[in-house]
Amino acid sequence: MTRPKPLIAGNWKMNGTLASLPELAEIAAAVREGAGEGLDLLICPPATILSASHGLLGEAVAVGGQDCHEAASGAHTGDISAAMLADVGARYVIVGHSERRADHGESDSIVRAKVEAAWAAGLVAIVCVGETEAQREAGDTLDVLGVQLAGSLPDAVQAATTVVAYEPVWAIGTGRTPTVDDVREVHDFIRNTLVDRFGDAVAGGVRILYGGSVKPSNAAELLGVDNVDGALVGGASLKAADFVAICRARAAS
Ligand SMILES: O=C[C@H](O)COP(=O)(O)O
Predict the structure, then answer these.
(1) 217 is in an annotated binding site
(2) Which residue from 248, 253, 175, 180 is spatially nearest to 216, judged by alpha carbons?
(3) Would you call 17 helix, strand, or coil by DSSP?
(4) Neighbours of 226 (CB within 10 A)
(5) 234: which residues sit within 8 A by CB, 6+ positions away?
(6) For the segment 69-98, what is each residue's pLDDT rounded down to a tens digit?
(7) Is 69 considered catalytic here?
């Protein structure tokens, strides 16, 4: 199976204002100097600065949303549709992040509907899955991920429209990461699960990102693991220098 082109994605979460745009300018400058060679790059800033971010980053670094509503439009005060994200330049949208699942009670079936909404608007959906610490300690990690994948991914998955992000909940923002062997086991499991359901041709091209305390010092090790096709980076993506260092580490691994 040929490895898909790696994707390094930054998720700014609820951080960043117009005053943060210089960080993006710094990333854009590093990319012009070759930092993103051989990689697809993505920043998912808050929706309030998506348009300005797109204007700054241009085509070399994609921008994406952090969530979208499952409906195309309507009476959903405060929500954002996939088409609205696309309208201001987004090419991707994260769905089913564990913070959305926990804070907003998003079930696998809601996540699945959001994936379909993203596709309908022409966006690539980054579908997040991951186990809690209690689930890992109980030995349930693969079972939990199997259920999340089965429920969150629609039948019409294509490599060009879908990315899976494995984010162990206990590793997010904690500075803790799974061992390389644990990451390999989970990513192999996700790949095999995709192959069983969607076949080799589709599943081989779906990028499987690792997310959870990725930083410059551990990026080469984590991103060098088989079936790790990039990273979904939270905290470290807020600093241009760290995000660029992660990109360089992946390019070199
Ligand atoms: O979406 C990103 C992940 O939740 C990882 O966040 P983190 O890199 O701050 O641990």
Answers:
(1) no
(2) 248
(3) coil
(4) 11
(5) 10, 11, 13, 172, 173, 211
(6) 999 999 999 999 999 999 999 999 999 999
(7) no
Domain range summary for the chain, segments of one domain joined by +: 7-252
CA–CA distances in Å: residue 231 to residues 8, 137, 149, 220, 235:
5, 24, 18, 11, 12
Q: Residue type at 21?
A: L
Counting beta carbons within 10 angstroms of the beta carbon of residue 79, is it exposed (0 to 12), middle (13 to 18) or buried (19 or more)?
middle
Q: Is 167 among the residues known to form the active site?
A: yes
| HSE toward the beta carbon, residue 153, CA cutoff 13 A | 28
Helix (H, G, I), strand (E, B) or coil at 5: coil
Residue at token pair 């069983």: 196
Length of the chain: 253
What would the CATH number be for the domain defined by 7-252? 3.20.20.70
R_g of the chain, CA atoms, integer Å: 17
Q: What distance in angstroms lies between residue 96's CA and the mean position of ligand 1's atoms?
A: 13
Ligand 1 pocket check: which of 103, 232, 237 to mutate, most ligand atoms within 8 Å of Cβ?
232
pTM for the full predicted model: 0.97
ipTM of the complex: 0.99
Nearest Cα residue to 157 out of 193, 116, 187:
116
